[in-house]
Design brief:
single chain, three-stranded antiparallel sheet, two-stranded antiparallel sheet, globular
Amino acid sequence: MADRLVVFEKQNVYRIGWYLQEEQDMGATLGEEDKREFSKDEWDYKLAIETIEALPDVEKDKDGYFWESRKEAQEVLKQIKTAIKSYQSGVKMPDWAKKALAAGWKPPKGWKP
């Protein structure tokens, strides 16, 4: 199994970060660094940050982005995974789809951008 994005609880709020399979521990939390330049290998981190920043009213502290409920964080994680899947397929997700996902739209099964 590879490293993957997961929702986890820290300091009574929910965050999204990487679970590192080899270390069996958490890695970077989304938004914990204010990076603006990314290497080619960090495209998934950049895409995750862009997805979050397109959402309204996302809160952030020194430890990164956070949500008050697990459900909210899970919804954002779904949107991030959809964006990553779209990117991997080589098809850029249209702006209307990004906005719809941010508003809670759930793509129908088999939907492709």
